Structures are given as structure tokens and as C-alpha cells.
UniProtKB/TrEMBL annotation:
PROSITE patterns, A to Z: FAD_PCMH (PS51387)
Ranges in a coiled coil: none
Gene3D superfamilies to which the protein is assigned, alphabetical: 3.30.465.10, 3.30.70.2190, 3.30.70.2740, Uridine Diphospho-n-acetylenolpyruvylglucosamine Reductase, domain 2, Vanillyl-alcohol Oxidase, Chain A, domain 4
Origin species: Clostridium frigidicarnis
One MF term in the entry's GO annotations: oxidoreductase activity
Entry protein name: Glycolate oxidase
Required co-factors: FAD
Lineage of the species this protein comes from: Bacteria, Bacillati, Bacillota, Clostridia, Eubacteriales
Top-level taxon: Bacteria
Annotated InterPro entries: FAD-bd_oxidored_4_C, FAD-bd_PCMH, FAD-bd_PCMH-like_sf, FAD-bd_PCMH_sub1, FAD-bd_PCMH_sub2, FAD-linked_Oxase-like_C, FAD-linked_OxidoTrans_Type4, Oxid_FAD_bind_N
FAD-binding PCMH-type domain mapped to chain residues: 42-220
Record's keyword terms, sorted: FAD, Flavoprotein, Oxidoreductase
Pfam families the UniProt entry points to: FAD-oxidase_C, FAD_binding_4
Amino acid sequence: MTYKNVDKKDLEYIVSLINDEERVLFGENISEDYSHDELGAVKKMPDVVIKVSSTEEVSKIMKYAYDNSIAVTPRGSGTGLVGAAVPIHGGIIIDLTLMNQILELDDENLTLTVEPGVLLMEIAKFVEDNDFFYPPDPGEKTATIAGNINTNAGGMRAVKYGVTRDYVRGLEVVLPNGEVIEVGGKVVKNSSGYSIKDLIVGSEGTLGIITKAILKLLPLPKKKISLLVPFENLDTAIETVPKIIKSKSIPTAVEFMQREAIVAAEKFLGKAFPDSQSDAYLLLTFDGNSEEEVEKAYDNVAKICIEAGAIDVLISDTEERQEGIWSARGAFLEAIKSSTTEMDEVDVVVPRNKVAVFVKFIHELENKFDIRIRSFGHAGDGNLHIYILRDDLDETTWNKKLNEVMDCMYKEASNLNGLVSGEHGIGYAKKSYLSTSLDKESLNLMKAIKLSFDPKNILNPGKVCQ
């Protein structure tokens, strides 16, 4: 489809809709940051950026864009890693970061109603200050809640509590034609027709623009303890995970990491990790409402780890110790990024009992293609984050090796009955891998869903299944 470029007449009309010229950016006033997300490799400047402040403004802009066939890309903090917020057809970026108000804490229905630009870390602090708990815990705490919903973000606590979709009760959504709908609500159960809410969650801004979200909360667990468990090698560490999961002591998080990632984090943060001598580690967290409950759970798992070949079990039972460990884990991505000139990511998910097989395969690829690869991830739910590093490779060699390594990884994930993305989404960068991993009928259904929401294909075009 051919999209209309934003001209002077369009710009004048948009400014009249917003009634605030300072929130409409064009030409040299548009920051280069709007041309990409954290991936960096996919870039395109928009014609205009509109910093919206209300659902009404979003609705008016979408109606105008729809009537005039102008491409629109919704955007939050831009922390994505698949180019989903990049305006690959130019046009309009709707920046939702000014819509950042926490609207209501309903302690009777255990819900929190927020605007799309509220940051994950703001939600976590607000509800904990009020003795509640929002379990989804993606690594990027400066992501907006709408970004989390659009990618169905998971994070470290998914093994026990589930992913973002499990905590979205209701949404207010502006459709591509400018109409505003409300889906779901504060109700706990809902069997009233097709679940449009669950289609919006994970749709990466291609079906509608989220302007309000009602989130499910839980009572705040009173006690939390982490275990750092060193192993002689990664195989032994990861092979221990199914034994932990099969026990009746389900951890809140089960992360795996290797020494290289820890050393990089130590260097990046400028402080020592509690133990960085072993080849591989499991990092586990347990939470509950009493010290006795949590101790019983971690004692049981500690025994399982020792019996499986762990070198030791280090207990972090103070806030300071836990902060030391988890701050290092949280810095892995930035530490890896700072160690190289460019990188790209693979965010595959495989069955939990295939994690060890896949990690071995990654090491084989590193040797086969003579390229640095770093990995860590959520061993408890089979979601691995693998980073291919450019270092000093020239552009031609880098692109060739990158494509070959990625092809091998996604093929192996498919062989292991895995999927292209566990939590970061498909966006623009991973479209080709999705199209080769899904059957034709599934892809056709996705395209038909997109067409039913957006017949003119103006909202975030060229992403996911297109």
C-alpha cells in the first residue's frame, strides 16, 4: 500500500487538533531517538511526532490518519528490541509517554487503573507502598506498561506468577479508524464472546492503541529470599532445573547465568558479585507470607541442588545481599552491550527440558562461526536471551555471520518444538523467522485478524505477520 506523506496542510490540521504546537514535533525538532528502538539496527525517521495527552487526542489523530491513509506508529519508552516502535513507513509517531498517570487503586477489586505511559518501575513502587504486588517483572524497568502489554512481556517471575497477559483485566483501546472501545474490565471471570482484550495483548501496536489499562494485583508477599547456586558447568546447572520445577517448592524465579556474563556485569557496575569463580550459576528467589513457608521451600530446593551436583548454596536473606545479586543480573544486557560495537538478540523459548540442549548448541555455533555469543535467561520457563556480538567485524562479514547464526538458532529452536519469541515480540526484525516457523494457516489467520481491525493497514504497518 502507498501511504501519504505528512505535508504542510496535514501538519496545520494536526496542530489544530492538539492545540499545543510544542507537542507536535517535525523536521529538525524530531530527535533521532524516534528513528529506532533499543535494537538500533532498524531505523527510519517519522514525518511528525505527536506527544499526546489524552484518549480524545489519540482518537482524533487516528481518525484523520485513517481518512487520509497516513501510517501511524504508537510509541512508549522505545525500549523494545525488535523494531516494533520504528516508523518504517514514515508518517506519524504517536508518543504516549505524557499519558503517565496512575488513575485508581481499587483495594476492594484488587485492581490498578493506569494510563499507557506509566513506567513499570513506577507501578511496582506504587503498589508495594500500598502493600500490593504486581507480579510481572520484565528486565527493563523503564518500559511503559502499554509496551509491556503490547509485547505480553514476561520477565523473571513468570515461572511462578505468569506473564503480563495474566494481569490485564481490562483495556481502553483506540482503533485504527479512531473509534474508542473498552474490553474486559474489573470482573474476575468473563466468557462473553471472543476475548478481544487478549488479542490486543501481545499485538505490538498493530491492532489498536492502548490508552488505559486495568491491572490485576495480588497481596504483597511478606518475605523474600534468594539463593545463588554455583555449579562446575552449565550442563549440570540447567539439568537441575526440571528437578526443581517438579518439586512442590516452586521458586518465584529461576535464572541461569555463566561466568562471562557475571564478570561483564562486575566490570560494568564496578562492584564484585558474591561469587564469580564457578563456570555456571542458578539464581533462585522464593517468596511467601511467612519466614517458615519460605525457608521450607528453599531448604527443599537447596537439597535438590546439592544432590544434583551444586558446589554450594549461597543464601541471600537480607535486602542488601539480594540487591547485590539482582542488580548484577539486571545489568547483564547493558554490560554485554558496553563490551562490543554492535549486537543483535535472539529471544527464543523452548520446552524447559530442552534448555540445556539449546545452550550446548549455542556454544557449538560460537566455535563454528568464530563469533562471540553471550546468553542468559529464564531457565524456569525456557526463555533464553542470546546476544550475537559484532566486536571488530567489518559490516559485510558481520551481516553474513549474523544471518547464518540466527538462521541456525531459529531452526534448532523449531526442531526442539520452541518458538521465535518468548517475550520481546516479533516487530519488524524477526518477521522472517516467524513466517518460517508457523504454518501457513496460522499466518493467514493472523493477517485476517489484522485486516478486520485495520482494513487500510495504517496502524504500525509492516510488523509481526505482514
